[in-house]
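Reopening this ticket.

The earlier resolution said the output was attached, but the attachment link was broken on my side. Pasting everything inline this time so it's all in one place.
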Amino acid sequence: MISKFTTVYAGHVDLPDIGQHTTPANERRYDNDHLASVFAKTENIAKTMDACGYEMLWLAEHHFQHEGYEVIPNILMMAVHLAHVTPRLRIGCGFNITPMWHPLRLAEDFATADVLTGGRTVFGVGRGYHTREVETFGAPMQDQTANRDLFEEQVEIMFKAFNQESFSHRGQHYTLPPRVPYRGYELEEITLVPRPVNLPVECWQPVVSANPRGLDFMIRHGIKGAVGGGAATMSDGPIQAYRDAAARAGQELALGENLTVGIFCHLADTPEQALEEITPLYEEHVKMFGPLGFVPGLTPEQVSITQGRGGWYEAGVPRVQHFMDLGAWFAGTAEQLVEHLKTLEARYPGMELINLSCPMGTPEQMMLEQYHRVAEGVMPAFRKPASAAAE
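Inline output:
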């Protein structure tokens, strides 16, 4: 049953203009001071969410984005800072893009953050989707098979490092430790220092294609899944597939257990106001994510049109209402959102976390207002009675 609320903030700075008639995505460029303003914005978001009773703030690792869309390069450093300025909010890595790291450096950095935040940093791994980022760091992105092979070996190494007092690894990409002499003996095993304070490590990964190989890998390592709202609500596909993967491993999960669903959400006093306000935010999202393949149903011609100014809907680009009907987006009142989430809760009884996120481009003050609206008008409908919480 839904009992915990989270959000994803991918790290966009406030943009001077938003929507299809404004600056095209590839023409956005901001100076260093404006790009660095993301850190103060993130701190304000975290403090507001903490005060509003949210469970977790998911941050995303991204690089080189002068366009201002996703500009937090090190979410583990950010997590340490945010844990020092908030009393209880957990900070989720949503996600560390593993192919851009050496796996032992990522394991060390997470373990350090875990210690320094008293266990309030939540691990998360992903394969990446920006060629500009992943390939620049020397890892494959265009070759999806090579990317997955590298990713899976890296995650294997990190879980060995987390869970074993000392370990070794011999694989396709890594030989750890190297067979070298060290202080009078031949090096055969190494120890991660420090190791995380909370073992086993809670780890999350995005569920995108619901590929059986990927899901079996997640279940084998106890990795929980974050499912995009569109994929989750167009059908039960990814959520049922995760449950099926668990069953193949001899585990019985309730539908939705160890998963969270993400929904782009905007609340207002009336449905009409919410729709009016979310439309330019949706259009900015399409400008950013359409060319990356994350807006289902767009033709190549429509993707090209969304990279210019205007004329979208005349060319058949779907409006936000289309994705609202599919369940990936929501615009309405708090009462309507409660009704929508109660439907999801009945559909996926094993799901505890729900992920409600402001769309790309939402200004800071509007984001803070949205967190208050959810806290005041939605969360109370999902709070456990005191007697149940005590149990």
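Reporter confirms the inline version is readable. The first strand starts at residue 4 and ends at 9. The chain has a mean pLDDT of 95.
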